[in-house]
Amino acid sequence: MPSPSSTRWPGGALDRRGDEREAEDLIGRERAVSGTRVLLIRADAAPVADGRLRLVPASEVDGALEWAFLGRSIDGAALLLAVLGEEGEEPALPSGVAWGRLRSVGGDLPADEAEILATAVALAGWLREAPFCPACGTRTEVRHAGWSRHCPHCGREHFPRTDPAVIVLLSSATDPNRVLLGANAAWGGGRYSCFAGFAEAGESLEDAVAREIFEEAGVRVQDVEYRGSQVWPYPRSLMLGFRARVVDDAEVRADGEEIIEVRWFDREQIGAALRGEDAVQLPGTSSIARRLIDDWYGGVA
């Protein structure tokens, strides 16, 4: 397992080099190259030190369940993913290096490294959890350097699945300095966030926004505006962020099941929560929900 010779990501965007995945010997060839870097993933965590990902030489990795080619760095060196098992003793790391979960450290990593970690966690989850063909139940063969699975029995090709989900920050019908947040039952009511849900089959994103908001908060929406997206591999989501205004503030009501409370917050209250001066908890810094709130609070158009 990793030694004190582990290295940092050199910086810059990852070039995924999808064209290279066709080479059947790509993983084996790159594992033999001295400059190849490896990102270890165990569950949804990777080695982190001083706010940066820590990578290891390929020669120091034993017993990975699966391997995948993530791409190349700005210096041309390959970056590989090594998927570790979740059972048994946690692999040892060098002094000063710890396992950091995407939820916890994603917001503190440099943007390029946060993207790499999200990609690696998503791909690792699929490689670990979907070994069998969903059509016939046969164990599949990993192909395309970790990016597809082939069923030797029925011949089907399978790829990592991504499920679209909408997440929406709502503002008041009459006061742009008020936003509506909800407390999810799964959080025990202590954390307030934007409203979110998966798009259903045959449903546009705009329709998904209107349906989810009405189901969870009881309000109709207007002025729906797309704001950006984020990979969120819990388990395999692509979060599509929106802002919208409610039609009538008086219609607000929690569904009482998934959302146990809805509450209006003014700009001063959001500022106090962001600064930790209020008992109200907001989404973590790694989430697009927090970005939507931060942008609204900061007046980002």
UniProtKB/TrEMBL annotation:
Residue span of region Disordered: 1-21
One MF term in the entry's GO annotations: NADH pyrophosphatase activity
Signal peptide: none
Swiss-Prot/TrEMBL catalytic activity: a 5'-end NAD(+)-phospho-ribonucleoside in mRNA + H2O = a 5'-end phospho-adenosine-phospho-ribonucleoside in mRNA + beta-nicotinamide D-ribonucleotide + 2 H(+)
Entry EC number(s): 3.6.1.22
Cofactor annotation: Mg(2+); Zn(2+)
Class of enzymatic activity (EC top level): hydrolase
Keywords: Hydrolase, Magnesium, Metal-binding, NAD
Domain of life: Bacteria
InterPro entries documented for this protein: NAD-cap_RNA_hydrolase_NudC, NADH_PPase-like_N, NudC-like_C, NUDIX_hydrolase-like_dom_sf, NUDIX_hydrolase_CS, NUDIX_hydrolase_dom, Znr_NADH_PPase
Domain Nudix hydrolase: 160-287
Record's keyword annotation contains Metal-binding: yes
Entry keyword Transmembrane: no
Biological process according to GO: NAD+ catabolic process; NADP+ catabolic process
GO cellular component: cytosol
Short name of any one Pfam family annotated for the protein: NUDIX-like
Family recorded in the similarity comment: Belongs to the Nudix hydrolase family. NudC subfamily.
Name used for this protein in its record: NAD(+) diphosphatase
Organism lineage: Bacteria, Bacillati, Actinomycetota, Actinomycetes, Micrococcales
